[in-house]
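Figure S4 source data
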Amino acid sequence: MTYTNHDDGYSEEHLQDILKSVKTIAMVGASPDKTKFSYGVLRVLSETGYDMIPVNPRPDITEIRGLKVYPSLSAIDRPVDMVEVFRAPDELPAIAREAVEIGAKVLWGQIGVRNDEAARIAEDSGLKVVMDRCPKIELFRPFWKPKLHLGI
């Protein structure tokens, strides 16, 4: 098995290919708190056209932005292309195992979420893995490139 060296970073093409290929994204650690980064990412990805599935085990959180909240990945009642994770890095291996069990194609750790064991678990089962990146940022990165050839 060949593993990705997640310290080397990812090509823009690799990230764009993933974001173009996925439709349904389960967000583990989604929050209804509008001040939390996960809320903003959920909002933008949903408004961009992704089928977002918030995942949060708190029983008092049943809906975020009109979307049904699931207590775990295994409770989701439809196929999931990508699992995006807003949790502590030490929680990522267990989430990777769940992502494999539900047949996800991609495991994506949000900025600050990186764990080599989780990457191996996912990659051993054929998932693509991205860690320590934000899909919202990567989605719009091609538009942010400076045009250095322009005159001032």
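Figure S5 source data
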Amino acid sequence: MKIVVKACETEELIKKSRFIGHISPCSNEQEALLFIRQLHLQHPNASHIVYAYRVQSPDGLVCRFNDAGEPSGTAGKPIFQHLEGKQLINLVVAVIRYFGGVKLGAGGLTRAYSNLAKQVIDCAEIVEHIEMAELKLHLNYNQLQALEYHLKKLDGSIIAQDFSDTVITRLKLPKHHVDSLLASLS
């Protein structure tokens, strides 16, 4: 799986219609919907604001797309297919269309939305998704230095610490490193 690091935008004129592609990272479905709502506020005169998103949630992958009034299957689905094909998650892609007076037909619409989605994905910075895990550990004071050393080697970080009789620490690290961290501390 891959994720987008930062938002990006691209634009194209196709037979007098203006198409504007947007891509944005989002960590949950509410963020994706908020991004789409913001586009509606920024482009109140747009003919269509078509979108697709894929977001990882605790219950699994949430996938949605919307044709926004374009003929069924000509807009949202072609965008979604690019997200799925490139195994992208935690992002939303939207294409805004200002109708220019020339009808494109079903095939033309499908190509236009698909090409804009591809262009905006190609302009975005995409990285491999690393699933993170959070741990809560109870340690003796003499284990703290070893923990910090191993965390640094495993790309982890300490989120919070509570010092009392023992050290209670919350940390975050790549999920695939959890076993090696625990083994190094025992």
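The chain has five helices and ten strands. Residues 132-185 form one domain.
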